[in-house]
Structure formats: C-alpha cells, structure tokens
Write a structure and sequence with these properties.
Blueprint lengths: L2 H5 L5 H7 L8 E3 L2 E4 L16 E4 L7 E3 L2 H5 L10 E3 L13 E6 L4 H12 L9 E6 L5 H13 L5 E7 L2 H4 L5 E4 L11 H22 L5 E4 L4 H10 L9 E3 L2 H15 L6 E2 L2 E3 L7 E3 L4 E2 L2 E2 H4 L3 H23 L5 H15 L8 E6 L12 E7 L7 E2 L7 H20 L1 H4 L19
Parallel strand pairs: 6-7, 6-9, 7-8, 9-10, 10-11
Antiparallel strand pairs: 1-2, 2-3, 4-5, 12-15, 13-14, 15-16, 17-18, 18-19
Bound molecules: nicotinamide-adenine-dinucleotide.
Length: 442
C-alpha cells in the first residue's frame, strides 16, 4: 500500500492532503482497513493540531477539517499543523506511542536546518513515535522560522504531528520532554571569550528559568550553543526543580571526530573504534582519550604503535578540527553537528552496547574520577535507554591523561567564576587561563 494508493481513494481534498502525509512503513493494515492514530497532546488546550484519523481504503469517511475560532486565533501553531480534524475513530493502531514534545532553540539556524528533519523523520525516536516540534527563535529570526516551518509542512512527515513556533521560551518550552538548546550568539570580531560567556550566558539563564517554570519535570536538556559546558551549567543552576543530571553539553561531535581520526590512522572502518571518551570542555582543552579507547576490541596503543602521533597530532587534530573545517567551508560545521546531536539523543534512548560507552558533558557532582564538583564536564557514560545515564567506573588514567584533564578542568572552573552573576553565586571574576578557541571558531 503506497501513498499513491491512498490518494486515489474516494476522499475529500482535505483528507487527500492529510493522507498523503503517510508513508507505507508507518501504516498498519488489517484486512482492507488502514488505520492511523495520531496521539493527543496531554495539554488541556491544544496549541497546534491534535487529530485522529481512521479510514477504510474502500469506504473512506469524509473527514471535515474544522477551523475552530480558537484554532484560527492561535499564533503558535503553524499552517497545516493548526488544522483540527473532527474524525470518528473506527480502529486504533496499538503501536503508536504518546506524542513526544521536543523543543529546539535556534531553530532557524544552520544546525537546526539539518536536525529538525532528522527528528521529524523518526530517525531518533523510532518509526512509531509521533513527534511535536516546538521551535524557538529570536525576534530577528522569526521570519526565517516561518520558512523552516513551511519546509516541515512540505516534507509530509507522517510522524510529525505538531509544529509550533515562537520567540518566548516560557511558551515554547511548555511540557517539553526534550530541549535542544542550539540558539546562541556567534562570537563577533574582537569579542573576548569573557564577553561571549556573558552574552550567551544570559540566554541560557533565561532559558533555564523558562524550563524550570514550564517544561516536563523530567525534561532532558542538550546544550549545543557555545560555550556549551558553561552554558549548560548556567542553565541547570537556573532550573533548580529539574534534576541537574538531566542537563548535557554536546561533546558528541568531538567524539565522532576522534573516532574518525583513529580509524583513519589504523586503517579500519570507523565502527571498529569504541570506548571513545572526550574529557572536559568543548574547547581546544578537550581531551580525546586514546588510553581507554579501543580498536577492534584492543587498546588503541596496541593497534597504533606511533604513540607520538597519538599524543601530539591526534589530540590536536581533534581539538582543532572545527577551526580547520571553517577555513575550508567558510562556515562552521552544521550537518555533522546535527548528526552528533541525533547520536547523543539516540545514546540516551537506546541501551548502550555491552562494554561500550559514549561521551557527554554532564554535571560532575558525585563523579568517581576526582574531577572538581559543580561544573559540566564531558565524561564517559552508559545508558539503559531510558533517557538516564550512569558514569563508567572502570577507567584507567596515566599521568598524561590526568595532566590534560586538569587543564580542561581549570578552564571550566575559571569559566564558572566568570559567570557567577548568572548562576546565583555572587560577583563574577574573570581570570580565564588563556583564550582557547572553541571548536568551530576561527
Ligand atoms: N557543541 C558543539 O559541538 C557545537 C558544534 C557546532 C556549533 N556549536 C554552536 O551551536 C550554536 C549554533 O550554531 P549554528 O551554526 O546553528 O548558528 P546559526 O547562527 O546558524 O544559528 C543560530 C540561531 O539561533 C538564533 N538565536 C540567537 N539567540 C537566540 C535566542 N536567545 N533564542 C533562540 N534563538 C536564538 C539566531 O537567530 C540563529 O537563527 C553556536 O553557538 C555554535 O558555536 C556547537
């Protein structure tokens, strides 16, 4: 049964439009009946469209798209996603899950332009998980946000049930179960790192407060906007009613880059590289850990005998990859960052393969590695696939690794002092050890 088959059935034009949103893999057939169940949002007043369709291929009830006064007046939902369908359910497909609310900030930006389509396609949450996308933009980017929503409309994703757009985080983050915080100001010419910390820190303080006020109490937050570790710290400090454990700073792109470089050097396909940890800050002090990583199940140092390359070239290559890419591309990595955000989410919603782990920047309180408390630091984690994670215990350290980790730790502690006014910890004092470039910056 294809979409083409469906659209030839005797339906009204409204229904044809809707049924053309369905892909055969997401449909369920019982005898000659086809059922699709669009989950209802838990919110009392729908902001975007909530609808339920059941149809028979031979005899299709002609559904009426109802534009209620309330729906007309809603500015948050977008276009086709504002339709309310008044349909009678004849058959419900049991496999559909409850709608998942995903908020994305910086939704009109370059990274989101790749990520949103991955989320809507089912790549992250699976082929029977309906998704609502709640898109946050800035005042300046609002028109572009409408353009993004139009492209989402035109993509006819069957799993995409709601799209709402807005510039007020207190509205957009309502009931969010995932918050992907990508929107941030780029570092302008001549801007000091401390200036960037302050200007973006304010965005993440506000968004932390908004999450605290209106998001799901178990929302998982992934901070991408730079400087992402300290932004994540600011965000969690401003959201005291959400577990600090739920906040992540994205270092998965760095992990993916490190795996790629090791695979290249060892002459193996990159799926043979496992147990890759990025320690520390998403900056050039980050530490790609070749001591604990494995290639084909063996320690990297047994496979790659050129230890000088590992300590010098490999480490620097990973740390500066973003900058090199900008020189080639003329802009910072967007597609591979979106891939890595999807990877980071998948790592939390699917069980980690036996013996392996992944890297993510998380809150350090209670960590078993002796890293300073109360910062957000990239560390090795495992997940049961329930959205939560635990830190990996059996990790080996040597002097080289300890020394490098300490440098990244010192940088994050200095960044923390720089944003004390945003974390509720007094007066800020900025003594950053050096102005390390962020990956992705010139
Ligand atoms: N952690 C990582 O691995 C990683 C990798 C690459 C880029 N980044 C960072 O991700 C961020 C976004 O990158 P991009 O390439 O998508 O940038 P972009 O400039 O293309 O998009 C950013 C968008 O955010 C919007 N925005 C600004 N302030 C906002 C706010 N307060 N609320 C909502 N939206 C806001 C802007 O209008 C813009 O549309 C940057 O900070 C970049 O440094 C992080």
């Amino acid at each position: 049964m294809s979409v083409a088959d469906l659209t030839t059935s005797p339906v009204t034009s409204t229904y044809t439009k809707t049924s053309s949103r369905l892909h055969s893999s997401q449909l369920s057939l019982s005898s000659n009946r086809l059922s699709v169940h669009f989950s209802r949002s838990p919110r009392p007043i729908p902001r975007a469209q909530n609808f339920k369709i059941t149809c028979s291929v031979n005899q299709v009830p002609a559904p009426v798209a109802v534009q209620t006064e309330e729906a007309k007046n809603k500015s948050e939902c977008f276009g086709v996603f504002c339709q309310t369908y008044d349909l009678k359910a004849e058959e419900e497909t049991k496999s559909w899950k409850k709608l998942i609310n995903v908020a994305v900030s910086g939704a009109a930006g370059m990274i989101s332009n790749h990520l949103l389509f991955k989320l809507a396609s089912g790549e992250v949450f699976g082929p029977n998980q309906p998704v609502a996308l709640k898109l946050l933009g800035s005042e300046r980017s609002f028109q572009a946000l409408e353009g993004v929503a139009m492209e989402l409309e035109d993509s006819l994703y069957p799993l995409l049930r709601e799209v709402s757009i807005g510039i007020n985080p207190y509205e957009v983050f309502e009931d969010a179960e995932w918050a992907l915080l990508i929107g941030a100001k780029p570092r302008g010419p001549g801007m000091e790192r401390a200036g960037l910390l302050d200007i973006n820190g304010q965005i993440f303080a506000e968004q932390g407060k908004a999450l605290n006020a209106v998001a799901s109490r178990n929302v998982k937050v992934i901070v991408v906007g730079n400087p992402c570790n300290t932004n994540a710290l600011i965000c969690l400090k401003n959201a005291p009613n959400i577990p600090a454990k739920n906040f992540h700073a994205l270092t998965r792109l760095d992990e993916n880059r490190a795996k790629c470089q090791l695979a290249l050097k060892a002459g193996v396909f990159y799926d043979k590289v496992s147990n890759m940890t990025i320690w520390g800050n998403h900056s050039t002090t980050q530490v790609p850990d070749f001591l604990n990583a494995r290639i084909n199940g063996s320690p990297v140092k047994e496979v790659i005998k050129d230890h000088k390359w590992l300590e010098e070239e490999f480490t620097e290559k990973v740390q500066k990859r973003g900058g090199v890419l900008i020189q080639k591309w003329g802009r910072s990595s967007a597609a591979s960052t979106a891939v890595s955000i999807a990877d980071a989410m998948k790592s939390l919603v699917t069980p980690t393969p036996e013996g392996d782990w992944f890297s993510t920047g998380v809150y350090t309180n209670g960590n078993p590695y002796g890293i300073a408390q109360d910062i957000v630091f990239s560390m090795p984690c495992r997940s049961k696939g329930d959205g939560d994670y635990e830190l990996v215990k059996d990790i080996t350290f040597d002097e080289y690794l300890r020394k490098r980790i300490a440098k990244s730790e010192a940088e994050l502690l200095a960044e923390k002092r720089c944003v004390a006014h945003l974390t509720g910890e007094g007066v800020a004092f900025c003594d950053l050890p050096e102005d390390t470039m962020l990956p992705g910056e010139m």
